[in-house]
Structure formats: C-alpha cells, structure tokens
Amino acid sequence: MKKLGVGIIGYGGVARVHGMAYRSIPFHYGLPADTIKLVGVADVNPTAAENAARELDCEVWTTDYRELLSQKDIDVIDICVPNHLHEEIICAASAAGKHAYCEKPLSNDVAQGKSIVEAVEKAGVKNQVNFNFRYYPAVLRARQMIHDGFLGRIFSYRGCFYRSSYINPNKPLSWRLTKGIAGGGALFDLGSHILDLIYFLMGDFTSVQATMETLIKERPIAQGSAEKAAVDVDDIVLMQTRMSDNTLGSIEISRMGTGATNYLQFEIFGERGALRFNAEDPSWLEVFDVKDPDQPIGGMSGFRKVQAVSRFENHKAPDWSMAPGFATTFVESQYRFLQAVSDDFQPMPTFRDALHIQQVMEAAINSSNEHRWVPISETLK
What we know:
Blueprint: E1 4-9, H1 13-29, E2 36-42, H2 46-56, E3 60-62, H3 65-69, E4 76-79, H4 86-95, E5 99-102, H5 110-123, E6 127-129, H6 137-147, E7 154-162, H7 179-182, H8 186-202, E8 205-213, E9 218-220, E10 228-230, E11 236-243, E12 248-254, E13 263-270, E14 273-278, E15 284-289, E16 304-307, H9 326-343, H10 351-370, E17 374-375
Parallel strand pairs: 1-2, 1-4, 2-3, 4-5, 5-6, 7-12
Antiparallel strand pairs: 7-13, 8-11, 8-17, 9-10, 11-12, 13-14, 14-15, 15-16
C-alpha cells in the first residue's frame, strides 16, 4: 500500500474508533508503521480539536475543516460530523481533490445525497460510507454462500437492530434527537446499518411499507433540566419490504429495546437452506441445509454453527482463530477504502450505494406518513 495522509473532521465517540482503527491497520496487516499518517483533525470545539490532536499524534488541529482541505499531505478526509453537515464538507473535499470516507448515513435526505454523489463522481475521487457491519467475516461468508446459490430461491428474510440507548425518559435532547440535524431517529441511526446489510446480501429494494413511532415524545432540553421540548424523530420503526427479485422481508429497528446493547440480526430463508447471524455472537454464521437427513435416529438436520472468526484477507494479527470484535469491522472497512485509494480501484459501499439506502429510508418515512406501500423510485422524483 502507498503511504497516505488522513484528516479527520469531527471528533466525537465514533471518530475515536476511526482513529484507533487507522492506528491499528499497520499491525493488523503487517504494513510499515508510517503507511498511514494521521495528519490533522478538525472540530468546532477548539479544546476538543487540540485534545484530539494529542490523542492522535497529529501535527495539525483546527476549528475550520477547510484548513485540512488545503493540506497537500492529506489524501483522505474522514467525516465524523452530524448528518446535516455531510453535504457541505464532502462537496468541499471533492472540489479539493480529497478522497472521502464518511460515517453513515450519507445525508439528511435524498436531495442532499444526490448532491453528494454528483460531487464525488464529477471530481473522480474515491468515496465510501462506513457501513462497517458488512465486514464481519460471517456476513462476508453469508454473501458468498448466497451468490454461490446455497439458498436457491430465497423465500423471505427478517432483519432487526435493537439498542436500549434511549429508554431513559430523562436522557436529554441531543443532535441525534433533532430532525433538522440528524434527518431521522432510529431509522437513520440504526436502520441505515441493517438496511445496508440486507442490500449487501440481497440486492436492491423496490418498495417499502413502514410504521414509525416516537415513544417518548418530550425530553429535557439539557441534563438535569426541568424544561422539556418535543422530540421530532422516531424511536421505533417496523418495516415490510420487497426486493428487486420480489422477495418479501421484514425489518425491525428500535432504540428502545430494553436489555439490548447491539442486537443486530438477520435470517434468510430459501428453498435449499437458511442462514442467520447475530452480531452478539459474531464468530459464527448459523447454516441450515435441507440436504441434511432428518430421520428420527441418526439424522443431522438442524441449524449448525459454521466457524467464521477473524478470517480477513491479508490479516496478520490477531490471528484468524480469535473472535472478531466490533472495532475490527472498522479496521477492515477503513483498510479496504485506503487500499482502493492506494491501488486505484472502486471501494464499497460507495456513496451511490449509500444513496440507495437513503432512498429506502425516505420511502419508509413517506410510507408511515401516508399509510401505503411506497416505491423506492418515487424518492428520486
């Protein structure tokens, strides 16, 4: 891999994981320590920016992201800011000739998403959204098995992503609970991930029917405040979908899943077999094969756990036998993007892929508001 310089814009919780991943890549893939250089970090909070530079050992820190775009030794801009700022920053980065890696979702709405895609494609820069759950080895194995025809004709699927992060009614309002900044609630925050996984495994969505609900309709305006304000994003989303091959499926998304930490799961049922995966047990892909005999005595019919563990291509450490972790999916996602920049090939998922997910989410919002199935194609009009 060629030597590459990276600038990070926005330094909250997820940006720390990105920074850790960049630092880890040389160890994981046996690369020289100076292959990836974290050149600079930008954050609107000067104290946060200065502290981030110390954490990341960056030469440059600033409150104005444009200063990073002017740095000649920065090849890649990593965008970890609230959703409503993605369009402005990506368009500016594209004009500056910087390759763009961006946290999900792509944007606040489809119109912004289209503007982003047009900007990067016009500039010819590499681009990728951090749908990191694609990079669990078990998910990659599932995709391979589906493409190899293991399931045969797919009958249906079910996906869900539950967290308990907003069950406390006293949790105050934040940008993730504000539609003008986040674009949506659980749908955008968690739903973009599970929707992308289904898209990755099964192809395009064609229509959706959804019901969305805000379960806690008011929250304190600040920690400990008695004053409350309305919440204008969703807490829970129930969806039915139709794929391009007419396969039907259901998706459940909630930030009100009491007891759940990161309960992301999918099940896919086909004529020849079935697959299921749970991110809380990421070393395994569960597989059912209809060819297994089901006799009362001596039969082997049933779901079996197929070992996936840390089987990443070219991965040096930890070795393949060690269980994959959440952070490792960031490492793999970011490594694959940098590899695409270095060796000049198309990364995945691109911003155009993420635009499709943006369309599905917008169709879900329209469906919930209008109580009907909504074709995904309507969102591009």
